[in-house]
Amino acid sequence: MSKPRFTPLDLAADKARALKLTPVSPETEKRLAEFVELLLLWQQRTNLIADSTVQQVWTRHVADSLQLLDPAPGARVWIDLGSGGGFPGIPIACALANAPGTRVHLVDSNGKKAAFLREAVRQLGVPAEVHHQRIENFGESVVGRADVVTARALAPLKELCRQASRFIETGAVGLFPKGQDVEVELTEAAKYWKLTAERIGSRTDPQGSIVVIRALTRKT
Question: Mind listing the pLDDT tens digit for each residue in 61-90?
């Protein structure tokens, strides 16, 4: 299958829309541009994002990631479960690169994606650490120290609660971008979990929301 074609003009227009939605400093913009360039290079041989979203990589992926910063002001230690192509963890690390104490933990069990993440962290020089392991095997060193745990396009909310519970129960806030079926997912998760959650409208998807979970306990 051939890769989708796009032009620098397409990317420039998409970038302008994204940065209007989620403004950043010139230094952060430079890091993000370097990351997008690297991502598109690797995308030619490794499926990091859906081909259908390549022309909107800035709005669909970069801005969608950066909007998670607002619900967690002051957060410095982030856990990104199932990082895949680096979203939301790498854009967050780019934005917080100069904030003292920042560490973004990128967790992914896929070897090719972990290799991409390591190369991105190396080239960008951002305060992130790649963990090539299964989610259930990660976390002993950061339980109780994480400010935020997040995951994007990884699993239904019920499953995300299971994967993130040990972090949220020890003080982290869960930030989970969701689409138009968010109410269905919240209802299903509430069958198994007692959770304190709120929804924040997405800047990048009129039908989407960010689910913010501040407390979580498994029902017996």
Answer: 999 999 999 999 999 999 999 999 999 999
The architecture in CATH of the region 8-218 reads 3-Layer(aba) Sandwich (3.40)
Q: What is the pLDDT of residues 154-180, one digit of tens each?
A: 999 999 999 999 999 999 999 999 999
**Tokens for 50?**
């859906």
Domain ranges of the chain: 8-218
CB 58 within 8 A of CB 18: yes
List, for residues 7-28, the tens digit of each pLDDT value: 666 899 999 999 999 999 999 9
The DSSP-derived string for 7-69 is -HHHHHHHHHHHHHHS---HHHHHHHHHHHHHHHHHHTTS--S-GGGGGGIIIIIIIHHHGGG
